[in-house]
Amino acid sequence: MNNLFILLGLTLGPVFPLLTVAQPTMTNVAGRNSISLNGDWQTIVDWYDRGEQRRIYLDEPPKNKNAFNEYSFADETLTVPGDWNSQRATLEYYEGIIWYKKELHLDTKPGERLFIHFGAANYRTKVYLNGQLLGVHEGGFTPFQFEVTDHANKGLNKLIVKVDNRRISDGIPALNFDWWNYGGITRDVSLIATPASYIADYFIQLKKGSQDTIAGWLQLNDNEGSENIALSLPDANIRHTFRTDADGYVSFAFHAGVERWSPSNPKLYQVEITSDHDQIREKIGFRNIDVKGDELLLNGEPVFLKGISIHEEIPQRKSRVSSEADVMQLLLQARELGCNFIRTAHYPQHEYLIRKAEEMGFMVWEEIPIWQGVDFTSPEITGKAQAMLRDMITRDKNRCGVIIWSLSNETRPAPDRNRVLRELASFSRTMDPTRLIASAFDQFKYSGNKIIIDDPLSEDLDLLAANKYMGWYTPWPAGPGNIRWETTYKKPLIISEFGAEAVYGNHGTADTASSWTEEYQAKVMEDNIRMFRSNLQLRGVCPWVLADFRSPTRMHSTYQNGWNRKGLLSEYGEKKKAWYIIRDYFSTHSRL
Ligand code: GCB
Question: For this protein, what is any one GO molecular function term (predicted)?
Fold first, then answer.
């Protein structure tokens, strides 16, 4: 067993002391032998959290003719995957509990292992099979799974899932956040069958600093003993064999003359892995991402990140992304804007998005949902955050498109916060030594025309990321072209958010923020671009945000009505003036 798994076991312990926590997930679910459990699931809305007491999870028929149940799955369904808010008018604002039920007819085979895998469910989930609790999971954006081999019947099985999206003070995110709290089983559910000994996980990327050494490791499921592994990239004429140790683990490094992935050449290779009992394949790409002083280097060349921040929402449907078509809508909009980089704000987004982005040549920033008010004094926070990081990295660590793991967004320097985020930084580096680690800051010092980054966490990060709404939340202290960003940390700087609100079609003065006009938003963009051009340490920008998105915290009844209006696009995809300003900036910016 590699030391990563040991580390994870230790840190997860205290999170759910009494319950079985979902296991670390397998990588590459799509490459496994699985059947989809998507479709209509029967549901019960449990407004007052009475379901446990009524033992809904047993779903038993009444015991005799005078007995009865005060619940029934008979009459209502919801589609999985999908948030519940957009599926029923009465659930649009619902924050609470819904029980889901799916009947599975299984033909279990001797020696086969079965797992139920959830792409994501928001926020706390409890899973029962045939009346038995399989375990719990916390976190709305990361995958989880339970082994059901010993719980599954040949024939009929009842899978019952309790999903609770109530916000909690020690949650991640916590009680407040600037996006819609869509509830439900929001991503795909699959039943995966594996042999008794299967390939649980693997890491295959270019070795840090080398353009022709592929390095990584492979882990069979728990302690299956020594096995032969063959790893091949047929298109590159590469085949290597290894033998795992007694714990089913092997690390490897071998010479490989591969073409490197880049936005202009998003080359991916078919990779095939075989063990004595299992096999798996997927497309993997290879690239180098490095920092040298304040330079950001992709495959050894300076790169400028022309980014856009994206929420996982289809605004015109008022729903979460749930399909490949949804993901393509967002990515095609980002492409039309001229981006080479996407910030998946503020949580791990759908695996489809990460895979499609890589295929299309986008570099990606992925983040866990530590957003503003997370309680760093809670003793459980580190464990919860590590579980989210672990599951995000496990899922996407073989996606070369992903270049940055971000630990948090807009947290205030303080001893507990510094301690937790430092632990997370070193945890991420242990899991993945190849990628860059970031955290988006919004706390700066000001002096005349200078904006100063002195957050002590900078020491632990590979690059500096600043969310700064000059011209919107912060007035300009000097002409935009005279603003200087200063820091003693010689690291690449990204402006990871900037922008202003405007209602599409609202035209008028560019002079006042309170006009909410497209003209004012466009001017804010122009002014920020002026500031960018005179800041030499800048290696990328990421406007906030691709499209107007739903947020209950946006309460202006004339202009917002529950929408954050900082989109370059309206909720219907209409282009605001600011969209053209950013497109032109990206098309004339020299560094690709
Ligand atoms: C921020 C946050 C983002 C908000 C945005 C805003 O700094 O990171 O989540 O949505 O500002 O619109 O205020």
Answer: carbohydrate binding
Task: Please report how the helices 415-431 and 381-396 are oriented relative to each other, as an axis angle in degrees rounded to 10.
Answer: 30
Q: Whole-structure pTM over 0.85, yes or no?
A: yes
> What radius of gyration, in Å, describes the C-alpha atoms of the chain?
24
Using a 6 Å CB cutoff, which residues line ligand 1?
178, 346, 409-410, 442, 467, 497, 544, 564, 566
**Predicted confidence (pLDDT) per residue in 68-81, tens digit:** 999 999 999 999 99
Highest CATH level, class, for 209-287: mainly beta
| 69 Cα: distance to centroid of ligand 1 (angstroms) | 46
d(CA 244, CA 200): 13
pLDDT band at 589 (very low <50, low <70, confident <90, very high): confident
Q: How far is the CA of 95 from the centre of ligand 1 (A)?
A: 22
How does pLDDT run across 157-192, given as a tens digit for each residue? 999 999 999 999 999 999 999 999 999 999 999 999
Give the homologous superfamily in CATH for domain 4-194. Answer: Galactose-binding domain-like (2.60.120.260)
β-strand partners of 372: none
In CATH, the number for domain 291-498+535-542 is 3.20.20.80
Mean pLDDT of 46-66: 96
221 vs 343: CA distance, rounded Å? 33
